[in-house]
Amino acid sequence: xxxxxxxxxxxxxxxxxxxxxxxVKTVTEKTDFPDVSNKTVLIKPNILMDSSENSCITTxxxxxxxxxxxxxxxxxxxxxxxDSPGLHxxxxxxxxxxxxKICDEENVLWSNFLNNPKTVLIPNVNYKLPIAKDVLExxxxxxxSKMKTHQLMYLTGCVKNFFGTVVGLNKSACHxxxxxxxxxxxxxVNLHEFIKPSYSFMDGIIAMEGPGPANGNPKxxxxxxxxxxxxxxxxxQAIICGYKIDQIPILHYAKIINILPEKIDCTILDYNNxxxxxxxxxxxxxxxxxxxxxxxxxxxxxxxxxxEKKLTCPSFNLNxxxxxxxxxxxxxxxxxxxxxxxxxxxxxxxxxxxxxxEMCPHNAIYVKSN
Length: 370
Ligand code: SF4
Ligand code: SF4
Known about the structure:
By secondary structure, the chain is of the alpha/beta class. Helices cover 31% and strands 23% of the residues. The radius of gyration is 20 Å and the shape is globular.
């Protein structure tokens, strides 16, 4: 008989604490929430960069508060909250996004992931990564991801949220070692299998659409999702945002290695009835273009691929650029540099990971196809 995975999706239209608390409580009651009593629990929100909660880049701090309250009520011995953003420096303290303030007010510990990370070998990809010590030492790990588009992976989700357990700039180096959607998905899924989180929520109250994960626009979706199986939540997100499961590289790889939930029981609302028809998603890039290019004569093919590459490389809106150099510092391929007071891109070096687009705080980098 198929194993049944419970998934809770509930309507919640705003970030008023009473509403959030009631919604989170119902979701935990209707799903297989882990036994946290007397355990050390690490909660992992999504803090891509420390930005205002109104930009919808990060997990909303009030949703974090509601989760902390529930975990406290269920008798956790110790609660920690932590994440490693894209450009993780020692001064990062999650202040702008309001998450540090919630930790202080709720009297739980903020975990600095830069403290004593441990390098581990990620199985099946044979790749070593430094993982935050508190992630490795906690009894229970709970994620709170944000419903968002993602230029490279189409959607951010519960599974990819745990990429933030890798500390510092090592995350951008992963893009060089796994430089396309398919093999990057392999890394993310195997990292997630290694971390083995116990439960994840998704903040889909005000989601992000358009050119996410940092430069998209807020989209009211009015939903909180939760399950002990992160893939169940990510499947629901894919359907709600108008994709098919196989179009999302992480879900596609998880399906190939047979780890998607066998049967999902939607215990509150059914995701098939929650599709957002006007959600502005990232268009799927068709691989058939590459296949058709292979039948072209050698010289034409090279020209074709070069043109294709140029088209999919990020572009710069220099009027918006404030020369903060975040993009230069994050680029794993060293394809960006400062020349004559402008950011210059070497399209031959660019691997189209879009880390620069993710990290630009001034909306000065865009991807043409969108
Ligand atoms: S991150 Fe954005 S604003 Fe900063 S230098 Fe790069 S393009 Fe300019
Ligand atoms: S320029 Fe941007 S998209 Fe290209 S490799 Fe560097 S970070 Fe990635």
